[in-house]
Amino acid sequence: MGTKELPTAELELKDMRAHMINSEGRGIATISSLLNISSSHNWTSAVACFRRALSIAKCFAKARSTLNQSLCLILMHMRLLAGLEVKHRGALHLCFFSASLLSFVDNCFPKDIPQTYAPLPRPGNEGEVIFRATTAVTKAVVYESDEPEFNILRLYRDAAVTPIWEGTTNILASDLVRHLIKGNNLDIFKTWLDRTIQIVIGSVGAAFPTTLRSAWAAIYQRLDYNRSNLAATLADGRHIIFSLAWIVAGILLIRDAERDGDEVAMEIASRWVLGGRDGVGEFALAEVVHASKHSRHQNDAERTNWDCRVVWDVDLPKDPVVTGYRTGTASKL
Hints:
single chain, mainly alpha, two-stranded antiparallel ribbon, 2 strands, globular, Acyl-CoA_dehydrogenase-like, acyl-CoA dehydrogenase activity
């Protein structure tokens, strides 16, 4: 079944009556509305599994101590948790943004959109193109983010079923690339994204839109140059899908931070867009990662304190000092 074999059942059809529901080769397109609904359940479940696993890991960190020091405040462990918090926040915004587009495309777009609302595409063809592209990048991010190293068997089993139903990351990337370079879809997507980046100015300063524009220009140039060379574009499919996910999620994170001026939300948006390390930057195109490595003027002490605020929502305690290594004793090595 699907792209990963799952030996749960075997179905054999012999001499059965069947009826064509559309022209040959258009079966998936005909039932796509049902698949979209099922997909929304899948990506929501994946994000929920990610959140639950991360919460369990944080509870364990609070209860565990090593070298007479609390694991929850050991800097290396806290930075790992902070990175996962940033990745989850981006995945969560993609999840709900895609769910809202599903509702609007299937029904109708709202007439009066609040100023702080997420940047919606226009109804019609633009909405259809953006919805399909956005759902693809959402799936790539949320399914990649199901961290197996948490070793929580039930969550792992629940999350592992999504590639069977949705397809592997390669399948999602292939579908996205084919969709974008088909007809004028890339130009439609560019129109929406250019308009969306333009509104990301507000109180966040020039660094955010400048970085987003540079990254998007690199992605668009790559796709536009290879419009007629599908094989070459597909070869970069995984990097392209995560690069687009990085841009769309970055925009959503910035809009969320602008909405109420929350400091932690702004720090997460900064780490995602300007940091070059958090989020899904490790999977993006090299040009995108380079564009995102914007100087933030943040020293080690400031970053460590922000790690603590992102993970535990409090400033890093100054006493006792947690080092994460033995102090006051000779090394055993």
